[in-house]
Amino acid sequence: MMISPSAILFLLPLLVADALSLQPSIFSAYQAKLPSVQQGSTNNRIQSNLRHISPTPWRTSALSSAANNEEQTIELSYESLQEEIRRRETLREETLLDDGSSSSSKTEQQFWKWRNHDIFCEVRTPADTSSSDSKRKPKIILLHGFGASTTYWRETMKTLQTGGFEVHALDLLGQGRSSKPYCYARDGDGRPTKFPYKLYSKAPSVAIIAKETSPISMGKNTNTNVHYSINLWANMIDDYARHCNMDEVILMGNSLGSLVALSAATGDFIQTPNNVDRENMFGFLAGNNLGERSRVKGVCLFNCAVGLNSMNVLKNPNFSAVQRNVLQWIFGILNNLIFDNELLLKFALNDVVTKDLLRDALKSLYTYNPEQVDEELVDSFYYPAKFGGDGAVEAIRQIYTNDAGLSPMELTAKYPEILDKKLPLHLIWGDSDVVTPINGDVGQFYCDRVANNRGGKGMTTIDVVSAGHLLFDDNPSDTNSALLRWINKRVL
User: Fold this and answer.
1) Rounded-to-integer distance, Cα 445 and Cα 408, Å
2) In angstroms, what CA-CA distances link 107 with 98, 173, 215, 238?
3) pLDDT the model gives residue 95
4) Using CA atoms, how far apart are residues 316 and 464, in angstroms rounded to an integer?
5) Checking DSSP bridges between strand 460-465 and strand 425-430, what pairing results, if any?
6) How far is CA 321 from CA 45, 252, 306, 316, 434, in A?
7) Which residue from 343, 347, 422, 476 has the fewest beta carbons nearer than 10 Å?
8) Where are the alpha helices (DSSP H) in 209-254?
9) What integer best gives the mean pLDDT of the chain?
């Protein structure tokens, strides 16, 4: 499909930050050295491991037509924002009750207090939680990607809830409806004074979930220093699971949310630069080497990213010194001109980003069924960006310019006992994803591991569906079929 100029404008930083190292047309020399799903005997072996699911007809949400029939012109003020989101949320809940699901199932939207920040959560419980089958099923935590929120998990949450699972979807700190902190205290260079995130010990003081009278309200933006990283969010998810006293958990992430899931599952976020003693620290989900068992029963990654941003490409061992220096120079230019330029980012959010631009950009990511891009989805991206204040700009700036963290390849090499031998790891990939394509370096890494059983235990599996980057909402029927098949066969 053709991508409009406005969509290209919106997607430019996303494509540069997430796809620069992944597009074979950009780094053909590097891609030629990777094991390819199209080359030789590897292709023959991988076909037995990759299950290509046949397409199904487009499924259009009832909410889309309902929302379109009641479309209004929205004045951009905080009061009208709250009124409009409340209207859409009411419409959404009415639609959910009419979708054939049991009326006894329960959906709660609430804010959880974490380090004085408001973290938006949507919790869905199945109709019958008293049955032995429901009690023994692991809880599921959903982790979104860059700029997204709980909203685009709507079809996934509905399917898992109907299947008897308790589902928890969270907006990561700095994104969606969660708080977007911003520190107005600056150092001599004008930058926020940063602090290292603190890790909880065996006896953390975890905040209490506090419901607001209006569950669709935005979290309060505090005057606080926050250094965004994969590990920060993994720490947040670990504390949330601890607070909810989850016994068994399946972690699921999309794009950069995949890295958050891997960090939480392995406990990598505990590894601090100053080597904190692990005897006093442990991951609630991952356990540790002192007898604390892992509570993670499986991890599912939807179109896994290379890191917090694309700077992980500089770690590529196949690059020459010249290639690495050129890329480092390009990243520096982009950061100085665009991503680290707060004034430009503010201008883009305030004066450039519109609903039409977002709609075009999102449709370019929904390659299977662009009609899934309805008002509910557009609003979930639009309002947090428009009304997130300085905190929204700061979150975007840091995500593009902070350390990218460990790549999936580095995490696998660092924790082979967990990711290769103990933990069922499943990947579901959209075959037409333009952000993290399956023929990019991360996709090829996992395809090679599956095709050649690199871990030796066959714990990693892959499904490929006809869809784009947001495959679970773009083609929910095929994606959910692959997901449930993996859970029933490999996890339960």
Assistant:
1) 9
2) 14, 21, 11, 22
3) 36
4) 25
5) parallel
6) 34, 36, 21, 11, 28
7) 343
8) 230-243
9) 76
